[in-house]
Every structure is written in C-alpha cells, then in structure tokens.
Amino acid sequence: MSLSEEKTSPAPKYPVTDKVLEALAISRRGCDELLPEADWLAKLARSEATGVPLRIKLGLDPTAPDIHVGHTVVLNKMRQLQDIGHQVIFLIGDFTSMIGDPSGRNTTRPPLTPEQIKANAETYYKQASLVLDPAKTEIRYNSEWSDPLGARGMIQLAARYTVARMMERNDFHDRFKAGTPISVHEFLYPLMQGYDSVALKSDLELGGTDQKFNLLMGRTLQAEYGQEPQCILTMPLLEGLDGVEKMSKSKGNYIAITEPANGMFAKILSISDELMWKYFTLLSFKPEAEIAKLKAEVEAGRNPKDAKVMLAKEITTRFHSAAAADAAEADFNNRARGGVPDDLPEVSLSGAPLGVGALLKQANLAPSSSEANRLIDGGGVRIDGSVVSDKGLKLDAGTYVVQVGKRKFARVTLA
User: Fold this and answer.
1) Which of 12, 94, 121, 257 has its CB 3.0 to 4.6 Å from that of 45, i.e. a possible disulfide?
2) What is the C-alpha separation between 17 and 116, in angstroms, rounded?
C-alpha cells in the first residue's frame, strides 16, 4: 500500500455541528489537499464535543535567518486554526537541518553546521510571532527527542520503513533513474520528520505541497507506534515576485517579513494582476466573499491597482503598522510621480571627477560598470532628476541625487 492509500477512519462518533462545519471550512480555505478529510472532520467533532483542543504541528528548518511571506502561507493557516481554539506547535527543525531536506531537490542539499542552525533559529520564532499568537503557541525543537534516540534508536526507527516505499518518493525516484547520487543520510530526513509527529502526538501537520511525502510519513509512523494517525493539510507554494518560481531567498524573488515598510509595499505592488488574486487567497485575512466581490469589480472595469493597494496595505500593516502602511503608500506615489523619497541612503565616494558608470557601481546602484552602461542606454539613470544619456559623463566633486529605475535612490557625495 502506498503512502497515498492510507486507510481512513469511520464516520464521526460525535455530532457534526454547524461549528464543526465552520471549522472544516476554515481548514479548507486556500488549501491544496486535506487528507483524509473524513478523519479531520471526526477529529474536529470530537474536539468540539469534548472541549479538548487538537494538536496542530508546523515544522520549519532554519535554513536561512529570515522568514519571507511565502512561509506565512502555512503560518496564516496555523493562526486561523489557533483562533478557533486549537493548540498550535511551532517546531524548529534544529536536528533535521543537519540532515538537509531533499524535498524538491535534484541534488543533495548541503547540511548546515550547528552554528548556522543556532544563528538562524534565534530569529525564527520571533518572526513567526508576527503571525501567530505567541501566548497560545507551543514552541519546540526536534533535537529534544532526536538527539536522545542515539544510534540504536535510529536503527530501530529505520527498521519500520522499507527502501522500496522510500523510492516511491518522486525526488528519489527521478534522481535514481537519472543516475544522480542519493546519499543514505537523505533517507533519514522523512523518517525523522515523521518521528516528530510521534513525539508531539500531533493531530494535524501542515506543510507545502512539496512536503506531502514527509507529512504522510508521520501518519505511517504514528500508526506503527500505536497512535491515532495525524491528518495532513498541504498549502500551495507561493510564487515569488517573478510570478514563475517558488518564493525563495536563493532566487531573490522574495519579500522578507522584516522588509522595511516602503520596500514591502512597493514589492507587493510589483506583482502581476493575475498573481495578485492568489496572494489575496493565501496571504489576506479578508473573508473569501469580500475577495470574490473585489475580483468581480475588477473584472467589471475597476482598476486592478486599487485591489493591489488594499493587499499591500493589509500585509504592510500586519508586519509594521497602519501608519507605516499609509506612509509607504505616500512614498510609492511620490516615487511614481518622479519624486525623491525622504529616506535616501547616504553614500560618500572619492575620486572626482568620476565616470558615471563607476559611480553607479561604487554606490551599489549597479552590480558592474557594464550593467551601469546598459541601464544608461535604456534611459534608466537620472542624476538630480535629469536622464543621463552620455555613458562618458564624468561628475565633479559635489552632492547628487542618483536614481536607477523606479525604486533605487541614493544621495551621493563625491569628493
């Protein structure tokens, strides 16, 4: 039997009230899969009848020090379930990070050092608390139970699963067929993630669609250990600013939740009109009926920018404040009119007279002199409000407001 063919429980023994159905609807909003839904309905009904909250787990490996809004897709779902009375567990994978998650990889992921993991983990919960209610969140580290397993316990855990079933996983199957190396330690990752569910006695585990195999492993191992198997809820992966690739720090298409308000607002305004609706579904806390009404208005002729501004202000307010969101909107409009923002970075350079290409590179407004020349050819460089067209321009000593594109500015003092 494959992981996708897990047995489901019989019909709920407890009454399915309107409140239970409402909780089911909240669970399903924006999700990709809820498996098995009948089991989750039964758990919700039992919780409502007995008053015992369900244990809902989300694990994140601290592979980078900052959380971006793509991570908050599952955090938002956690908060929704937290708000209706369930116990959420924010699990930091300090042990599993040393293995490296092979999900979605076509090569072995390099494991992190303990020092990197510790540095990254220190910021994770603080940032997650911008979405979750910290007073009602249980924070755990999977080294609590993974380290004590030791070599003997790891062997006993590995004995509960077969290589054949492990090879059903798409990434392993594809890499094996392609002759791409698979390290033995990578087989340990889904086993250890599944064992987390055993240790926490979780009722529901959340993750992205790329985590389905790992989440189902939790069901399998819980049954092996005599526990009621958890349900799983997968959320879609959020495309980044490019509208193509999954939001990722490594791809540079992300919005960090610690991003300055002005930058956060502007980045949300930069997404496509089509992608905006997916962002609304997965990131907004507005009721679905309200989003549907707004979408209908746009389809009937309302400017889609109106809706995008609403989304940008909601998200910027969540991670900053309403006042910061209003100021970010004013800053964005000022820049759109060709105005100069108030918070210009100050840069001091020497070497006057200095060529404009070298100035752009040294001020970190262009990655190279050749890229600076390309920007000038495209009319994307302004100095004191005037478009620069001469790549041979040399600037004397003085202070200049330099603009590259719509969003990059600096006040450069050249000596």
Assistant:
1) 12
2) 48
- Kindly report whether the global pTM for this prediction surpasses the value 0.85: no
308, two tokens: 């995008």
pLDDT (0 to 100) of residue 2: 47
User: What are the residue ranges spanned by the domains of the chain?
Assistant: 3-235, 261-336, 346-414
Report d(CA 275, CA 239) in Å as an integer.
8
249 marked as binding residue: yes
The whole-chain average pLDDT of the chain stands at 86
Looking at domain 261-336, does it have CATH number 3.40.50.300? Answer: no
The second-level CATH assignment, the architecture, of 3-235 is: 3-Layer(aba) Sandwich (3.40)
Range of lowest pLDDT (153-167, 249-263, 285-299, 382-396)? 153-167
**Domain 346-414 architecture:** Roll (3.10)
Give the residue-averaged pLDDT of 167-172: 73
Phi, then psi, of 404 in degrees rounded to 5: -125, 120
CB contact at 8 A, 194 and 214: yes
